[in-house]
Amino acid sequence: MSLTSPPAAAVPPFLLRTPENASRLAGPAAVARLYRWCRPPLFALFVILLFASVRAGEPSDGPVLQFGDRKQLLVDDDVIAGKHFLERRLRRPVKANGGGPVIVDDTPWEDFGVPIVGSVLREDGRFRIWYRAAGSGQDSATYCYAESRDGLRWVKPRLGLVEFDGTRANNIYQIGRPQAYCPFVDPNEKDPRHKYKSAVGAAKGYGTTTALAYSPDGLRWSYYDQGRPITGRAADTINQVLWDPYSEVYRLYTRTDYGTGGGSGEIRGTRDMVNPWTELRSHPGDWTTVREWCLGREGGRKDYEWTRQIYSLNGWIYEGVQFGLLWSLERPGDSEEMDFFLATTRGDRPWNLEWVCRNQPFLPRGAAGSFDAKWIQPAPNIVTWNDKHWIYYVGRPISHSGRGSAGAPTGIGLATVPLDRFVSLTASQRWGWAATRAFRVEGRELVVNLAAPSGELAVEVLDTEDVPIPGFSRDEALVLRQVDELRAPVRWKNRQDLRGLLDRIVKLRFWLRQGSLYAFRIRGD
User: How much of the chain is in helix, strand and coil states, percent to nearest 5?
Assistant: First the structure.
């Protein structure tokens, strides 16, 4: 076949919609290849056919989204096709209890030298917290448990499990291995003896590695596979396992090392792994690494490791977003304060480190003299209750290198964020807009999480060609003015909801002035 004289029905092989051509069907290179393949008279015809096929198929901003009635958090651009005059902003939590701790070491067996707060769960009308209360060695540290009805006033129950100073009347559930302080309730588990699972340090003799353990109540723990490791070196901080219902895999977060295994040459990184089985206890060692990285090295900045290192990164999965609760070591080898940053991702993509790069901690350390002046370590998960997110953390007035004053007591603190208000798209005095990617309407009522006590918001519904749909244009929108609500309903002059658009592929365009938009949701009947 002559490349300059193809049959009329032939199609250039580089135009076929194959996986190999997915990245080649756009841009100047594709046009050049097409021009070389056929004679000039056919070039225009092929261009017309190509663009007609694109317009008749998927929208230009990618495949059609189907998110049902799940909330869409605007922490990233996952559902956003474009925006103008809007800035993404991080909202910081408000510290509870006047900025002081809600749990302190007020028993003889607790000594908050270097405590670690583990999981915090809300079950059966109560908060449950696991924490390292004394010591730091894997064979000698003391792990305790407490409960609270309101999240502020905590009770340390007498568990009767571990003897201390001649009595079991204490809240100790474990001394030494397995140090299961990051439990989660496995939603796939059918055997009540394995209801709770946790990543733990491996059995003695396996070095600083990670294994898995299980429990019927979160307090009495046993190793899987006799405590054999499921990772290489994973360091001695907060290793965590959990179930990701959106990707339908178990995720394991551990620390890893790029330098020496401890000492002045230690360079700390993080490793994320997945396990595809829905019965974890039968396949406790089947893990695949999906991310392994060190701050700065992804961008080629090898000196950055002496500015900031990852001490631990844990995952909290909420509304389809993986939130990375990143515990950082600042200025390693020097002042060594500990900070708490927020990262985000979805699925197995690389972490979005925008707030780390902007040097904006999610929960700033306290002022000089406060209990959290030098050190903040976040719990590996966040509790959502009563339209708030409850964030527990360890605060210390002394840094990792020992700097600071011990005038205030080390303890476990609490901060809260209003529901879904982690990151916003924010507009100033001038109007800005954000348009979503195309999605299929599967509900009837559009609600927004909006903080605009002095501003306004209007929403228009567009077709796949970005043309406003009659009845849902900006001019027909009922403007939300001076609204600060978690679930504000959106209306139009002659349309109370999206009922008439069910199963239709549309886009939304949010027009915002002097306010912050955090999330939206299309609720079903």
Answer: 10, 40, 50
Nearest to 213 by CA among 205, 204, 226: 226
Q: Which two tokens stand for residue 14?
A: 């580089």
Which residues share a beta bridge with 342? Answer: 325
Which burial class, exposed, middle or buried, applies to 384 when counting CB atoms under 10 A from its CB (0-12, 13-18, 19+)? middle
Place of tokens 């599967």: 442
Residue 46 one-letter amino acid:
F
Give SS3 for 332. coil
Distances (CA, A) of 459 to 121, 286, 476, 503, 510: 37, 47, 9, 19, 5
How many Å from the N-terminal Cα to the C-terminal Cα in the chain? 59
Q: Which of 186, 382, 350, 214 is nearest to 272 (CA)?
A: 350
Please give the structure tokens belonging to residue 132.
């390292």
Rounded-to-integer distance, Cα 40 and Cα 28, Å: 16
- Burial (CB < 10 A; 0-12, 13-18, 19+), residue 23, is exposed
Strands 308-318 and 288-293, how do they pair? unpaired
DSSP per-residue string spanning 438-472: PEE---SEEEEEEEEEEEEEEEEEE-TTSPBPTTS
Mean pLDDT by 10 residues, the chain (525 residues): 30 32 36 40 44 45 88 97 98 97 97 94 98 90 97 98 97 95 97 97 92 98 95 84 98 87 77 96 95 81 82 97 97 93 97 95 96 97 98 96 84 98 98 98 97 98 97 98 98 95 97 98 89
Residue 236: DSSP 8-state: S
Query: What is the signed CA dihedral for 298, 304, 309, 310, rounded to 10 degrees?
Result: -20
Q: What does the DSSP assignment read for 102-118?
A: SB---STT---SS-EEE
> Is the Cβ–Cβ distance between 408 and 373 less than 8 Å?
yes
Closest among 305, 270, 331, 144 to 219, alpha carbons compared: 144
CA distance 444 to 83: 25
Strand partners, 323: 316, 344
